[in-house]
Design brief:
The radius of gyration is 15 Å and the shape is globular. Helix content is about 40%, strand content about 10%. With about 80 residues, the chain is mainly alpha-helical. A two-stranded antiparallel sheet has the order 1-2.
Length: about 80
């Protein structure tokens, strides 16, 4: 999460969820299949919302997002 924030400094929690857990992002726009090039730019930002699980009050993932520092992977302390 920290590396994602470092690589995408303007990202918000919803951006991370769309990348990390696509099943927790529900598209409002059902006609997105086969979009490429300039069409994709016209459809930005993505229209949708977080799943019920990710929208709940006190969601642990959102707390992690808020607490995670903006730190590239090579600067992070190894987990093991």
């Amino acid at each position: 999460m920290s590396a994602f924030k470092a690589a995408n400094p303007d990202a918000v929690f919803e951006d991370f969820i769309r990348w990390h857990s696509p099943a927790d992002w529900e598209n409002d726009n059902f006609e997105n299949s086969g979009i490429s090039g300039s069409q994709a730019h016209e459809n930005w930002p993505p229209q949708g919302h977080l799943s019920k699980r990710m929208s709940e009050q006190g969601n642990f993932w959102r707390k992690l997002w808020n607490d995670a520092p903006n730190l590239p992977a090579y600067e992070q302390k190894p987990l093991l």
